[in-house]
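Quick one:
INPUT:
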């Protein structure tokens, strides 16, 4: 049972400040709206629902969201609300440079300001591609009006010569195969045609699918939302039902702060472990929690995820893709299994008005190879390992389910790349002094360094190592990695190199020790020498002097704070700004 008490209905809504009267200003606001052909009775005090749309042809994963918005509108009208669709900045992962992550906070600001400044009582958040889901949740959390997510849904499975082609995962694999001489360029180009067969987001358990799962696990979407393929008719049904539901959420005054409680975040962290979710979820959930006032930390990730088995057999950790996850029953099955194992706060409230347990308790698993029983888990200890040590005083992360067992405890000689250009210039050089036992170190790819914290942490291996049949090496950086990627990769090292973190002073030939079980990452030089090197360190990344990039550089926080802007933390509420007329 949840303790939430619905508000009394009918009551005066915030939209009536714009539409609910006969003053000059009320007439002004209504009259201009009516140029869209809206009948007068739609302004009778009924809930006005925004449909916040990240549709964009420049964000191909979200290019079908206009259609879903229409389905949401059907539901809103049916339930007695007035839907008004509006666009927000859409950070698309596949094309934006230097990285879509540099624009997540900008999109979140856009959402927050649009929600507060407009005559809206509630909002449906239409998202899909990696950064769009967290950006919308961050913005909505900072305003705290009733909000619910509809995801665009994943693409259909890719197939190439009888094999599944997972978005991203296959691309990384094939490009390594080319370097190793195992695949021709012609075959690679042919495979390109089979990777993206339909509208939708990446079909692996990459960041987009992970964040859709996080939205559902947090309770911010209707149960089952995460996995329905973009082109399945049930995706449209989900949009329609969500449109109906948001109207009741406004009547009940069921807000993000009622749903996204500490219990909800703890559920989401455990779900991330069970699905083998992206390391990017760590950053995004920390940022969302910061907006809604939940004091989530990196240590929560380690503590709560440690004993969670990865049971979802999807790439990049496993074999299948999101289509099969949906056919097996999708995320509700995973949540039910966590609940049965005592790893779920069952009373956490969801957007449906039901508890999370009420939503999932009766669902069935239709394919036990896709969603494995715990005793046949992919990785007994999934979750996210949070590493600390003199190389990462404020933490670094590693995804055990995507790493190689034999490298989880490793000591190796550092081969240092000062930045991504240095890496690109050297990695294919046959004279590079490197072998499979070395530790690849990449600097200046954190939030300030890149800027934006690019997904380059899973650096490709040198060709001469790949030709030996080696597919993994220990890699360390302050970057992120794509949720579709894999390997024994230490990410998000904080403080980052560009902020003078210890990563900045690692030198070629230093010895580095990784011990995932002990949660340790260590630069094996005397303390005094480390102090000396840090004292002598000088910034190598030039600070930008104008534009959004300056705002970003000056205000972005470390990965351990979700890389949000310092001035955006917290909920600023839905107070109605002054009118200008
Ligand atoms: Fe958009 Fe993967 S690139 S979801």
């Amino acid at each position: 049972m949840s303790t939430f008490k619905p508000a009394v209905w009918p009551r005066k809504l915030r939209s009536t400040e714009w539409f609910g009267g006969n003053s000059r200003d009320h007439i002004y606001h209504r009259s201009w709206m009516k140029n869209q052909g809206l009948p007068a009775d739609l302004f009778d005090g009924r809930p006005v629902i925004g449909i916040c749309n990240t549709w964009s042809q420049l964000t191909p994963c979200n290019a079908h969201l206009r259609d879903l918005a229409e389905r949401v509108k059907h539901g809103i009208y049916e339930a007695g609300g007035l839907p008004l669709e509006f666009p927000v900045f859409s950070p698309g992962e596949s094309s934006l440079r230097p990285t879509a992550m540099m624009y997540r906070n900008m999109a979140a600001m856009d959402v927050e300001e649009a929600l507060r400044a407009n005559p809206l009582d509630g909002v449906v958040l239409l998202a899909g591609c990696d950064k769009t889901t967290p950006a919308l949740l961050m913005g909505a959390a900072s305003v705290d009006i009733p909000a619910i997510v509809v995801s665009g849904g994943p693409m259909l499975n890719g197939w190439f010569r009888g094999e599944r082609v997972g978005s991203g995962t296959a691309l990384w694999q094939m490009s390594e195969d080319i370097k190793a001489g195992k695949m021709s360029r012609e075959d690679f180009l042919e495979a390109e045609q089979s990777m993206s067969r339909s509208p939708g987001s990446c079909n692996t358990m990459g960041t987009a699918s992970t964040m859709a799962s996080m939205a559902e696990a947090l309770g911010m979407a209707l149960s089952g939302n995460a996995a329905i393929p973009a082109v399945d008719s049930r995706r449209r049904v989900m949009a329609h039902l969500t449109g109906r539901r948001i109207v009741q959420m406004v009547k009940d005054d069921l807000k993000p702060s009622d749903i996204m409680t500490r219990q909800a975040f703890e559920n989401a962290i455990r779900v991330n472990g069970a699905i083998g979710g992206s390391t990017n979820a760590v950053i995004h959930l920390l940022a969302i929690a910061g907006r809604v006032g939940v004091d989530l930390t990196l240590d929560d990730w380690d503590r709560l995820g440690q004993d969670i088995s990865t049971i979802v057999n999807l790439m990049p950790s496993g074999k299948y893709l999101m289509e099969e996850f949906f056919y097996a029953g999708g995320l509700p099955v995973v949540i039910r299994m966590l609940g049965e194992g005592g790893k779920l706060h069952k009373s956490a409230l969801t957007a449906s008005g039901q508890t999370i347990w009420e939503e999932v308790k009766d669902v069935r698993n239709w394919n036990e190879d896709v969603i494995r029983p715990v005793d046949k888990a992919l990785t007994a200890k999934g979750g996210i390992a949070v590493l600390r040590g003199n190389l990462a005083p404020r933490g670094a992360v590693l995804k055990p389910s995507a790493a190689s067992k034999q490298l989880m405890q490793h000591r190796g000689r550092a081969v240092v790349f000062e930045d991504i250009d240095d890496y690109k210039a050297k990695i294919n050089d046959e004279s590079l002094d490197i072998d499979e036992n070395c530790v690849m170190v990449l600097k200046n790819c954190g939030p300030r360094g890149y800027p934006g914290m690019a997904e380059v942490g899973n650096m490709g291996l040198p060709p001469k190592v790949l030709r030996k049949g080696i597919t993994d090496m220990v890699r360390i950086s302050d970057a992120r990695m794509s949720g579709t990627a894999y390997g024994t990769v230490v990410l998000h090292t904080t403080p980052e190199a560009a902020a003078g973190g210890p990563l900045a002073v690692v030198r070629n030939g230093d010895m580095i020790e990784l011990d995932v079980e002990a949660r340790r990452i260590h630069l094996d030089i005397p303390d005094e020498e480390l102090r000396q090197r840090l004292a002598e360190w000088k910034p190598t990344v030039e600070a930008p002097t104008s534009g959004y990039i300056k705002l970003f550089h000056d205000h972005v926080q470390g990965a351990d704070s979700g890389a949000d802007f310092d001035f955006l933390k917290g909920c600023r509420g839905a107070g109605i700004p002054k009118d200008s007329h």
